[in-house]
Amino acid sequence: MKKKVLSILMTAMMALSLAACGSTDNSTAPAAGTDSQPATAESVKTEAETPAGEQILKVWCWDSFNVDAMKTAGAMYEAEHPGVSIVVEETLSKDIQTIVQTCAMSGQLDSLPDVFLMDDQVFTKYLQNYPEVFADLTDSGIAFSDFAASKVANSVSGGKNFGVPYDSNTVIACYRTDYLEQAGYTVADLTDITWDQFIEIGKVVKEKTGMPMLTNVQGEPDLLNMILQSAGISVFDEDGKIDLVDNEGLKEAMEVYMTLVKEGILQEQVDWSGYQGSINNGTVVGTINGSWICATIMSTDQAEQEGNWAVTNMPKLNDYAGATNYSAQGGSTWAVCSASKNYDLAVDFFKSTWAGSTEFYDSILTDLGAIATYLPAAESEAYNQKSAYFNDEAIYSKIVSYGGKIPTVNKGIYWTEEKEALGIALSKVINGKSDLDAAIAEAQSTVEFNMGQ
Predict the structure, then answer these.
(1) Is the C-alpha dihedral spanning 150, 153, 159, 161 positive or negative?
(2) What is the CB neighbour count within 10 angstroms for residue 269?
(3) Per-residue model confidence as pLDDT tens digits over 63-117
(4) How far, in Å, CA of 330 to CA of 408, rounded?
(5) Predicted TM-score (pTM) of this structure
(6) Where is this region: Disordered (predicted)?
(7) 274, 284, 325, 324: which is closest to 305 by C-alpha?
(8) Which of 244, 195, 241 lies closest to 437, judged by CA?
(9) How many Å apart are CA 96 and CA 91, to the nearest integer?
């Protein structure tokens, strides 16, 4: 089986190599839930280690963090279901995408695992392009209403559910409380506010501390997309066509970002390492990103930072109908292969763990720091424990509650193309190489070309 998959992967690499020729990797920050270090061999249960006669549910996912989370779910399920083995195989995110595409095009769906993890940023694209790969989970008995609606929306097509949400991609604003105090503010002053209010506070903080409020990687429109989703603004219309020109919400969001940079309230970094360093070295007051950024914040070796961080919601667009203080960034979702002979087992497994057990979510939060998008988890004891690092506050229950308030937007299947085009547009305007309207128009034309419109 493994040799067959490797053969398919090699074939896919050769088939896709022409498309890759001449391309460059401009990514600087890894999206939440994407590839990092592979799991060690010791952390992965293989088919060879499975006793003969056992029913096997094979799972593919990337990153030792994700592997360990799935292994925890597997161990809990196996303890209650003798004769079942959950086999987790570490497979890079890009490899999963390539193999899914190749198997769909060749009709060899039986080469896919029973369950696989899919990046939220491409789930919709793959679901629309290769619908035959994904099992319909709509009538499975999984309570999708127990998850944040914005997260569920990533794996919905035609009103049907094709995925089980995994990690939290809820956006949070994190600030150094000691720096805020130097400027005469508390985190309460930055809660439930607009971007206009934030900019005024940022000016004062910069004047009194000499430090910018926020940090971001130059050319990356992640914060821009967070602002857009917080207001329920989509850059694709109902027919899936790109909608940038005459999109007043987009223009307002870009103007906010440009003002942040112009006033020195947001400091752009050359790359992801610079972004992390600005947080860990204490040269910025805070950051706005997915809740997974907590791990970066806590990774510093500066002991004085412990207890001097606080979490709240992000600012919202000024006077924009439907604007909120809540958004999403990154994340991933579990899918069940339509060709799986273990559909019922997969569904029961999810209903017993990822979609039905607060005990499970308590375990991966405590042991791995994995934050759920499963709403009932917010009421558990573990999620309500106070974090000494974050000002003795129960940040995890707060994050889960934020997740239930995120507006749902249509990201379209060309979301990555839109993201790249908007990143270029932002850079051109900020560097004085284009005015805003012209940059937006150029971005629209670029995405339309990539979409074949």
Answers:
(1) negative
(2) 20
(3) 888 999 999 999 999 999 999 999 999 999 999 999 999 999 999 999 999 999 9
(4) 14
(5) 0.81
(6) 27-49
(7) 284
(8) 244
(9) 7
CA torsion angle for 361, 365, 368, 374 (degrees, to 10)?
50
Please identify which residue in the block is written with the tokens 């004769």: 83
Rounded Cα distance, 54 and 57, in Å: 10
Pairing of strands 55-61, 84-90: parallel
How many CB atoms are located within 10 Å of the residue 25 CB? 6
Contact 296, 217 (CB under 8 A): no
Token reading at 247: 């999109």
Residue 107 structure tokens: 């009709």
What the chain holds in terms of domains, given with CATH numbers, is 2-17+27-169+331-380 (3.40.190.10), 171-327+410-451 (3.40.190.10)
The DSSP-derived string for 283-311 is: -SSEEEEETTHHHHHTT-S-GGGTT-EEE
pLDDT digits (tens, 9 = 90+) for 148-200: 999 999 999 999 999 999 988 999 999 999 999 999 999 999 999 999 999 99
Lookup: tokens for 295: 């791990």
3-class secondary structure, 147: strand
Residues written for the chain? 453
Q: Measuring CA to CA, which residue among 95, 87, 36 is closest to residue 64?
A: 36
Please give the helix or strand (H or E) that residue 160 lies within, else none: strand 160-161
Torsions phi, psi for 249 (to 5 deg): -65, -40
Q: Which residues have a Cβ under 8 Å from the Cβ of 424 and sit 6 or more positions away?
A: 219, 439, 443, 446
Ramachandran region of residue 56, left (φ > 0), alpha (ψ -120 to 50) or beta? beta
Instruction: Kindly state the tokens that stand for 406.
Output: 């995120």
DSSP code at position 134:
B
Q: Kindly state the tokens that stand for 213.
A: 């409020």
